[in-house]
Every structure is written in structure tokens, then in C-alpha cells.
Amino acid sequence: MSKSQETFNKKEKQKKKLKQRQEKEEKMEDRKTNAKKGKSLEEMMAYVDENGNISATPPDPKKKRIFKLEDMQISVPKHDPADDGEVIRNGVITFFNQDKGFGFIKDLQTQESIFVHINQLSEPVKENDKVTFEVENGPKGLNAVNAKKTS
Predict the structure, then answer these.
(1) Strands 54-55 and 141-149
(2) Which CATH topology does 81-149 take?
(3) 89 - beta bridge partners?
(4) With contact defined as beta carbons under 8 Å apart, do 151 and 133 qualify?
(5) Whole-structure pTM value
(6) DSSP letters of the chain?
(7) d(CA 132, CA 119)
(8) ∠ CA(18), CA(10), CA(19), 5° rounding?
């Protein structure tokens, strides 16, 4: 008599798989019967109150403000170089390397540190010298040009 090909473990695995498949089918049917079709439009609506917070209730129409269309500015105004204030600035050289030919000027008005190259100096300078200069935008930030030593 030969042994059966199906061992106890094989039978148990088949039972387990069958049970899992049945549970999965039951869950699917449960989901189908209890499924709720999306929310209504009113439930999905969100409102922004006067403080900029999102709320579920519509804003109070009494607090509504009316704006003129002409008063609204949507785009960013173009940069006007005349608005920059003084063209010639005053500052103190905080660092200057004679060997490499560059340094930094601290603007007395804005307290910004501005790069200066030796080619932009009208005369030799050293640290803690007071200078007058003009500012222009360079590839890495502000650069001082036409720097002159003041007494």
C-alpha cells in the first residue's frame, strides 16, 4: 500500500488558503453593500474667513468689504533705481587683503557688508579707512564701485 501524496501539512495549508479567500470575499461584499457614494457638494465646500482661516461655515455677509478693481495690484511693480535712495554711500573698510586685491566695506547706513575689488579703488586703502562708494549688483551680490578714500 502506498502512502497518500497529500500530507497533513498540505491539507492544512489548503484549508488556510480557502478560509482566507472566503474572508476576503466577505470583506469585499461588505464594502460594496456599505459603500457610501462621495460627499455632497455642500459637505465638500470650504470657506475662508476674514482672518484667512479655512472653515466649514460660510462667511457673514455683513462683514463683506467691497474693493474697487482699480485699487487692486496683481503684479509686482517694476524696480525703479531712483527708489534706492542715495547713489553715493559712506562706509568703513572692515577687511582688505592687499595680496589678493579684495576686501569688504561695511555700509554705515544699512550695516551691510559689501565686496570691493582693488580695481574699483581710486587710491590704495587699508582696514578701518573711511570711504565713499557706489553700489551695483554683481553675480554674487552687491559690489562697491568707484570707491574713494575720505579723510
Answers:
(1) unpaired
(2) OB fold (Dihydrolipoamide Acetyltransferase, E2P) (2.40.50)
(3) 133
(4) no
(5) 0.45
(6) -PPPS--HHHHHHHHHHHHHHHHHHHHHHHHHHH------HHHH--EE-TTS-EESSPPPGGG-----GGG---SPPPP-GGGG--SEEEEEEEEEETTTTEEEEEETTT--EEEEEGGGBSS---TT-EEEEEEEEETTEEEEEEEEE--
(7) 15
(8) 15
Phi-psi region of 111 (alpha: psi -120 to 50; beta: other; left: phi over 0): left
Give 65-91 pLDDT, tens digit per residue: 888 888 888 887 776 655 555 578 899
> How do the domains of the chain map onto residue ranges?
81-149
Which single residue is written with the C-alpha cell 544699512? 110
Q: What is the pLDDT of residues 138-150, one digit of tens each?
A: 888 889 999 999 8
